[in-house]
Automatic annotation (TrEMBL):
It comes from Oceanospirillum linum. GO terms for biological process: proteolysis. Keywords: Aminopeptidase, Hydrolase, Metal-binding, Metalloprotease, Protease, Zinc. One of its GO terms (cellular component) is cytoplasm. This is M18 family aminopeptidase. PANTHER family: ASPARTYL AMINOPEPTIDASE. SUPFAM superfamilies: Aminopeptidase/glucanase lid domain, Zn-dependent exopeptidases. Its EC number is 3.4.11.-. It is an enzyme of class 3 (hydrolase). InterPro entries: Peptidase_M18, Peptidase_M18_dom2. Pfam families: Peptidase_M18. Its cofactor is Zn(2+). Belongs to the peptidase M18 family.
Amino acid sequence: MTQNDFNQQLLTFLDTSPTPFHATKNIVEACLSAGFEVLEERDSWALKPGGRYVVTRNQSSVIAFTLPAEGDVTATGFRMSGAHTDSPCLKVKTNPDQKGQGFLRLGVEVYGGALLSTWFDRDLSVAGRVSYRDLSGGVRHALINFERAIGTVPNLAIHLNREANKGVEINAQNHLPIVLMQQEDGAQSFADLLKGQLEAQGSTDVSEVLEHECFAYDTQTAAVIGFKDDFIASARLDNLLSCFIGLKSLLDAPQAVPSLLVCNDHEEVGSMSASGAQGPFLQSVLKRIAGQEERYQQMIAASMMVSCDNAHGIHPNYASYHDNNHAPLLNAGPVIKLNANQRYASNSESSAWFRLACQQAGVEVQSFIMRSDLACGSTIGPITSAELGVRTIDVGVPQFAMHSVRELAGSRDAYMLYRVLKCFNSLPDIA
């Protein structure tokens, strides 16, 4: 696969994954096209040598794994990569209708650490999961996506706030409701719009919308930009870019060594959920694969996890926010993320194995350490490492504008990390 082919597939994945539910659906469909078999958590599993399997939880987290045709998985362990399906955004409230001055607006909550100023004056749509009562009285769930721009959050004119360019305090309750339409009071509700969208998408059995988990998203499509096509600009690069890299490296790597991809939901809000990294999803799947506690512990000891989440590339307009010796450049290769206080799970052992994989792939590698006088973020890496006891390294692609409605990464970095993870998935015994 060429870099151009990879990037075009990445852009499509980004555009068709406006929510964790849609990202998970797209990952499952890619696995099915590659010959994977879907497992259901409530069923008994009869795993076969050489099998390729995928399982989901809450329709928003997914695990895909391959088993060796020969040999014992407890001896080799898994080469695992992990990412997360969620991104900071505006989540539509359960009862979102706000009516006044002749407008229907949607009340929203801020999901995660969103860079709020970037959400103003964008062409926004809404997507998510809707639960409804069907005509027979049962409960069904369906994904919806309005796809077109149905609303916006207009800025206040500078004439009404002459100090706007000195910084504006954004009140999430008052300033972020999404303006949907002009209408007479009581004419339509958001529930009416959801019911109409379900019917437009083919759900003809909708009696009543019971609940929804819907998110606003920017309709501007992902693109390769820059005078020399140096950049990829898109919503949700953090962290759908890593989900896609992990997926492609799993599908394209030789199956001689067992490989696994986990993409968890809820990382941006702490990971403490049934489908988050601090929940039991991954451990549950691994224990079912091993079958016995002793075999599970042997398998974990032989395994290694690469936690993939984007890194802070050095921004030319804000270079002073970086430690000059650990300031990753865009399009200069993947980044090992380190922190003395275990905000990242990397250590010298796991870093050494990753550097070996980079050498085998012919890819340069960089390092990121936060300035000592700034607080450091974290990832699913330390959580997964602590929950499982598995050796873990935190890596990522450098990017700008993290948590903006539209982020920026290098157009060559994702393909480089894909090549490295393919090599990592083929590493023999990691002693």
